[in-house]
Amino acid sequence: MSDLLWNLLSFVVAIGLLVTVHEFGHFWVARKNGVLVKRFSIGFGKALYSWRDRQGTEYVIAAIPLGGYVRMLDERTDPVLPQFQDLTYNSKTVWQRMAIIAAGPLANFLFAIALLWLMYLIGVPNIRPVIGQVAPDSVAAAAAVPAKSQILAVNGETAEDWRAVSLLLVEAVGKRSAELTVRTEQGEQKSVQLDLTHWQFDPDKQSVFGSLGIEPLRPEVLTKISQLEPGSAAQLAGMQVGDTVLAINGQAVASWQALVQQVQNNPDKLLQFTLERDGEHLTLDVTPQSRETADGFHQGYLGVSPTVLPWPEHMQFTQQYGPLEAVWVGMEKTWQLIRLTISMLGKFIFGDISVKHLSGPISIAQGAGSSADIGFIAFLSFLALISVNLGVINLLPLPILDGGHLMYLVLELIRGKPVSEKAQELGFRIGSLLLLTLMGIALLNDISRL
Length: 450
Description:
Layout: H1 2-32, E1 37-52, E2 58-72, H2 94-122, E3 124-127, E4 131-134, H3 139-142, E5 150-154, E6 157-158, H4 162-171, E7 177-183, E8 189-195, H5 208-212, E9 214-216, E10 221-228, H6 233-237, E11 244-248, E12 251-252, H7 256-264, E13 271-277, E14 280-286, E15 289-292, E16 298-301, E17 304-308, E18 316-319, H8 323-350, H9 361-374, H10 376-394, H11 402-415, H12 421-449
Antiparallel strand pairs: 1-2, 3-18, 4-9, 5-6, 5-7, 7-8, 10-17, 11-12, 11-13, 13-14, 15-16
Helix pairs in contact: 1-2, 1-9, 2-8, 2-10, 2-11, 4-8, 8-10, 9-10
């Protein structure tokens, strides 16, 4: 329940901020162009709180935090006295109206730049993208990607950390190949070509690295217990923090992963653990609890956490820049996110990625909660990503979105007169149907993931 409330609170904060920024873009440019804004609403439905300013604009915080709107004075929907006609939206030139409409998505992009600027001004702790292992019979193995090498670039674009590598590899989905530039353990720099012809990537089940057969280098994980879950099989059997697991059923345990595998394969079965405690050996009989997985299988569960050694100094670095340099970095990273979002939309349209991977409000809420749980920097990164997504999606040429309004205004420029009310109404109905369909698919995907 606490996780649910935290996710919900993080979601409301994130969406509230992003919607406010988006609508403020429309609001600010509308006012600069002499349009009277009647209402500035964050959320839909019943007003929870409202107030008015001296110019007559009503500001509203509404009950349903899934969007917002700016309502401008418009002769097509409002009775307008002659002395107020110059304050209407429809009285402005096509270029002024285009500026007002485009200001919402543009505000989202500028907000992403500001968030990333703040991130890199504070400093982003990172780990160098060094490959640990390469899985046999994988895309990476076929390309002879060397283990223990550091990834320097993907398709010629510099990748300083695993997040940058991930974004660039996801952008390569649907392509026939990708180039990795790496520096080997011996210090040699070389390029390898990944053949992506038969690459299968399911983002719901695996990381982009795992799908290619790349295992990132991680800190060493010992078989020494660092935490015990209260009421777990391990605690009930008498295990203690600081115990080192040496063997299970007389077979030596070579790694923590081997221990996990042995436990998961034996739900509700008695196992004999050989432990080292305070320099002495002892044996304990432990019966792992059974837990059902998402696929309906049952796995053993012990309820312990391992001791993980810290990252080596040479693997850690902080991406931190001065006030001016951070602006450029923020712009560069925002452009990368815009490009990735457009690329992913294209992959959905052309079938390179299935619509089953679309995410809706539940996934966004989970992302907001988990990023906020990690820390302030992670939450800023999440906000920047969603802000860019919101900006790009709003520019799609669907009549109900900002992109649809811009499409009609472009047609008005070409024709020399507005698109007919009947054609616009038909477009809005079709756009609403398409948008509701996509939202329905995304929501069903969210529920199936749960």
